[in-house]
């Protein structure tokens, strides 16, 4: 009999959502990006809510390769509650079914970013894909459209902010290596807000920062993912830079609570940062990961610091905490341990 390794986290999510989760009873939700990191967490959460609370939530998932996903994650292929729609976010055929909520999390794939896909291709996937799903939303009489944007819309972290607030307009550079993501996401936010105004449906925007948890891909460009991968395999942790950049990480289960609170409770056209305010240097993160495995692994720092510039990427989350009554529930030590345990158990 299948025992869900995330059951403790899923119980916690349901508990924190309290009565809000019942707003989804007998509703249909359409999710793009539903086979990615957060897509899997949404599926885990909604299927678990169906099982424990008998909510009868039906989920539509847009995927370029649904058959591959079903083979890799058979426990997330519940045909009673999940319908897969094969297609590309830029030109998918609109489903005939009606949906009450849409969560738009599709973007240029993490693998594509890692491979070095062209900036034009990345930008088009983000903007054309968002326009396509918004065209679907405007004719669906939905209750809420949630766009999962990125903290990258701010560009580089300004020196005059300790933590970036939502009202900071950003510092975007056209020649930045992440320009396709930052400008593409900003353009997609513009489309989302304008569609809401012109076609009269409710939207919300979640600007995600950095996250850790089960289902995080460990072989891409995410530093903490690479650290966890190497530690699990008893290899030295390699810091490619000097270890001084400052980052923060929100646990995936905490983030799902925040995303669903935004979907279900936010006012129209609200924008929220989603991430952690508790910051650490990359070196400190590596040290925590190293101490989380036995025996402890070595840490190798490839570069020495050559200037006084501060590389920082930290959100202010005061707004979402005060308006939607959420918090950071999982500390850095626990979220790293939970992620390590998940991957060790999977083998």
UniProtKB/TrEMBL annotation:
Pfam families xref list: Epimerase
Q: Domain NAD-dependent epimerase/dehydratase, which positions?
A: 29-275
Under the heading InterPro entries, the entry gives:
Epimerase_deHydtase (IPR001509), NAD(P)-bd_dom_sf (IPR036291)
The family annotation for this protein states: Belongs to the NAD(P)-dependent epimerase/dehydratase family.
Give the protein name, as stated in the record.
dTDP-glucose 4,6-dehydratase
Query: Whose protein is this, by species?
Result: Tepiditoga spiralis
């Amino acid at each position: 009999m299948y025992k869900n390794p995330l059951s403790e986290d899923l119980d916690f999510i349901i508990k924190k959502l309290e009565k809000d989760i019942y707003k989804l009873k007998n509703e249909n939700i359409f999710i793009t990006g539903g086979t990615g990191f957060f897509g899997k967490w949404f599926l885990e959460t909604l299927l678990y809510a169906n099982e424990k609370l008998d909510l009868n939530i039906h989920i539509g998932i847009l995927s370029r390769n649904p058959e591959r996903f079903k083979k890799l994650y058979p426990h997330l292929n519940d045909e009673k509650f999940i319908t897969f729609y094969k297609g590309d976010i830029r030109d998918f055929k609109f489903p005939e079914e009606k949906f009450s909520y849409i969560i738009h999390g599709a973007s240029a794939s993490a693998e594509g970013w890692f491979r070095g896909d062209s900036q034009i291709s990345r930008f088009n996937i983000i903007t054309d894909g968002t326009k396509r799903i918004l065209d679907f939303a405007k004719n669906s009489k939905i209750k809420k459209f949630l766009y999962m944007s990125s903290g990258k819309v701010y560009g580089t972290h300004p020196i005059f902010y300790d933590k970036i607030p939502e009202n900071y307009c950003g510092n975007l550079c056209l020649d930045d290596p992440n320009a396709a993501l930052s400008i593409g996401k900003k353009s997609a936010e513009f489309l989302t807000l304008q569609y809401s105004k012109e076609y009269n449906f409710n939207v919300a925007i979640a600007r995600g920062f950095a996250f850790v948890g089960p289902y995080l891909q460990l072989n891409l460009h995410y530093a903490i993912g690479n650290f966890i991968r190497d530690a699990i395999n008893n290899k030295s942790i390699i810091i490619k830079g000097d270890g001084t950049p400052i980052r923060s990480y929100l646990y995936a289960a905490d983030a799902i609570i925040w995303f669903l609170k935004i979907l279900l409770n936010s006012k129209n056209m609200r924008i929220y940062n989603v991430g952690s305010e508790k910051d650490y240097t990359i070196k400190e993160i590596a040290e925590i990961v190293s101490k989380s495995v036995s025996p402890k692994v070595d840490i190798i720092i490839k570069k020495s610091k050559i200037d006084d510039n501060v590389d920082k990427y930290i959100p202010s989350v005061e707004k979402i905490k005060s308006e939607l009554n959420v918090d950071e529930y999982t500390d850095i030590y626990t979220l790293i341990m939970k992620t390590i345990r998940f991957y060790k158990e999977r083998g």
